[in-house]
Predict the structure of 2-hydroxy-3-keto-5-methylthiopentenyl-1-phosphate phosphatase.
Amino acid sequence: MDKKRIVFCDFDGTITQNDNIVAIMKHFNPPGWEELVQQLMDGKLSIRQTVGRMFAMLPTSRQAEIVDYAIHNATIRSGFGAFVDYCKEREITLLVTSGGIDFFIYPLLAPFPIPREHIYSNASSFAGDTIEILWPNGCDEHCDNDCGMCKTTIIRSYDPARYHRILIGDSVTDFAGAKLVDTVFARSHLIGLCEELELPFYPFETFYDVMKHLEAMDKHETDIGG
């Protein structure tokens, strides 16, 4: 029986052109956020700790301003809408797996017919004095990276015997998942990481590139089978 194809697609820097969390921090510039990023890079803080502490620096009194900036500053990568349609037409399951935050991910994805249950991200609360990040998609027993939103946990929940698993991403947060899946589409930092471990990947800049590679893969399989 043919495996069903499933896509795990990153959001920040992949579906969008830029990293939205970094853009928010640079724009509102709370004192100390850059030091937190450096501690993350040095391995002293986890992704969950870093993101949680950065947003805790932003007052909820500026909620409307922060949300408005996050939504209007982001640009969707070329071809994404066509890719969503492509997946639907070919019965490819498309999951958005993001370490981003719900308050900008949901509005930015609202124009596209992606079921809410297919969008995995971190959540947020504006009930207190500062923004609190919530973590509904934590690590399973196989991951101790304290990811916050654990992409490998989601990938592992789909049996590789039944699914051809495809990852689309751009950064270090996608690297662990890239080691697990059957096919990797990479751009930016993820390319260098894959090259270091000689991990096979297809480079892309737009989602038209992704569709072109998938079409070529389909043709190859058809030629072999025929």
